[in-house]
Amino acid sequence: MVSFEDFKKFEIKTAKILEANDHPNADKLLVLKVDVGQTQKQIVAGIKGHYTNEELIGKTIVIIDNIEAAVIRGEESNGMILVTKDDETLALLTPDKPVNNGSKIS
Questions:
Q1: Regarding predicted confidence, which is higher, 88 or 103?
Q2: Of 12, 22, 81, 101, which is most buried, counting CB atoms within 10 Å of its CB?
Q3: How many domains does the chain have?
Q4: CA separation, residue 61 to residues 1, 50, 94 (Å)
């Protein structure tokens, strides 16, 4: 179990996908450029094959904004996108109404 105090440490926000490109060194990864309101950042995500690069551009998604940066197959990732997945389907978490980029999830 995670304490409520630990959960509060996560900065969960909305972000708009500006660019989506194939990862140069991995078959299932995409390199996303996202707008988080005050800043833009790069996030590497294992969603290739579930969405085309073109259909991702302009989508508002939900990310963990303050997760420690990681280098994934040579590309820096500065956040984590949130998805839901079952046996067959992977789906991005998205707000059901328009919101500003960088809006906090609470």
A1: 103
A2: 81
A3: 1
A4: 26, 15, 5
